[in-house]
Amino acid sequence: MTRSNVVPLGLADERQLRIDLAAALRLAARYDWHEGVANHFSAAVSADGKQFLVNPRWKHFSMAKASELLLVDADDPDTMKRPDAPDPSAWSIHSAIHRRLPHARVALHLHPPYATTLATLKDPTIKPIDQVTARFFNRLAVDNAFGGIATGEAEGERIASTIGNHRAVMMGNHGVTTVGETVAEAFDAMYHLERAARTMVLAYSTGRELNVMDDALAEATAGEWDVYKEAEHAHFAEMKRILDHEDPSYAD
After folding, report:
1. What architecture is domain 11-251?
2. Per-residue pLDDT tens for 83-109?
């Protein structure tokens, strides 16, 4: 699969990426963010991002293993003819992301309960009402052009286009996707996106008026999250330690 203009990761690097992606899948199941045997995670292994790992079709997240992740090529038109072809929706969304968005080395697509609840609203934006919701101020793309289950090329291309330079997208009538340079960053973004959505849903449920920060305070608070960049990696490392203690088979 290696093309002449592609520099793939070393074997050790790909092995660690497989372990991290499998861990993220297990953790998504632990938090009940997944939906049945749907949803999908991917991580680029080539320098251009077009060769990527993705979870196998219709395998439960809670059973994910590093060795079972599929290696596919976003430029390979015969991918869906493979006997181990990925889920059609996974191919539609993730091949488009890895073709179009170099900064999206990792992409996590889920239908978690609170974020998906927000995605069903006419206005699915996350308003800055606390420090976690403020993390996403002016940093969350919104896609309100849902066209059905994303099994066609056009749907994936539109989703990737909507993400643009953002690192998270609220997918109206659908779910959410986060992207990042590493699995740790994409995972931490998903964790806090679902936390922020939970706060929004609970605040809306009171029926009381929201106390929304002014733009200057919201932007300043969002900017402060950059100071905690190392915490994103520490968060993921700690969660892997929990998995190692309870069931380290994800790394197999």
Report:
1. 3-Layer(aba) Sandwich (3.40)
2. 999 999 999 999 999 999 999 999 999
